[in-house]
Amino acid sequence: QVQLVESGGGLVQAGGSLRLSCAASERSFNTYAVGWFRQAPGKEREFVAAITWLIGTTYYADSVKGRFTISRDNAGNTVALQMNRLNPDDTAVYYCAAKHNLYKSIYDRKNYDYWGQGARVTVSS
Length: 125
What we know:
Elements lengths: L3 E4 L2 E4 L4 E7 L7 E8 L6 E6 L6 E3 L7 E6 L4 E6 L8 E9 L13 E2 L3 E6 L1
Parallel strand pairs: 2-11
Antiparallel strand pairs: 1-3, 3-8, 4-5, 4-9, 5-6, 7-8, 9-10, 9-11
């Protein structure tokens, strides 16, 4: 039973930046794959970015490549999502998800066991 808490959401103008953080209660959080997913009103929850366990390979949705960066702080048991050059299409609730020793697809939200409550991101024109 791992607790995940997102922080850093808020309101930002188009072209601005936000940094989301996912804090975990697990001391060995580096053995968990961590993904960020988002859900806009009326849309399905979609993959945004992920980082693998131990090695830390990163993956991104095409819509955020070059703008978003996912990174891990193992000592602090946190994973961050740096979001730059935001646009109104990025408006959504962002969720942090984790899975211990994930071997299945990192893109599929069904493969994750633990989820945070979500952080709302609103990008104005």
